[in-house]
Write a structure and sequence with these properties.
Blueprint (H helix, E strand, L loop, with lengths): L10 H9 L4 E6 L4 E6 L2 E6 L4 H7 L9 E5 L3 H9 L5 E2 L9 E5 L5 H15 L2 H11 L1
Length: 139
């Protein structure tokens, strides 16, 4: 049973948050060319479906269910720091080893954590001047 929520996050929430950020467009993103969002042709969040290889790696363990999204990070160190916080719904899989991104199981994540994750992913991919302008308006 999910540890959360009065309102479970949906892909529509992801879309709303992503499109609220400057200069974002919807696009096929990631290795699986799934529905996602980009800033200046750089994907920062996308829906992540399970490949047969992903499912096989889980063996007898249950595969996380529901909608899963992938979130870009600045680098592997930031990814490790985020995952070390043990935020409900945040995880990774072997396919993402050595890749600056992690996964979020939407049914387990709180909206504030989702919003922050998507915003941080956008900041990691946005051109520096655009990111600086965005940050200066939030102060």
């Amino acid at each position: 049973m999910a540890a959360y929520s009065p309102h479970m996050a949906t892909l529509k929430d992801v879309e709303r948050i992503a499109l609220s950020l400057p200069e974002v467009s919807e696009a096929a993103v990631g290795h699986h060319k799934a529905r996602g969002w980009q800033v200046h042709d750089k994907g920062f969040v996308w829906e992540r479906t399970w490949s047969k290889a992903d499912i096989k790696r889980y063996g007898d363990e249950p595969v996380p269910d529901g909608v899963i999204i992938a979130i870009r990070t600045e680098d592997l160190e930031e990814k490790a720091a985020i995952l070390a916080q043990d935020i409900p719904g945040f995880f990774t899989i072997p396919h993402f080893d050595k890749f600056a991104a992690y996964l979020i199981q939407l049914r387990l994540v709180k909206m504030a954590a989702l919003r922050e994750a998507i915003t941080e992913a956008w900041l990691a991919q946005a051109p520096p001047k655009l990111a600086e302008r965005f940050l200066s308006t939030r102060r």
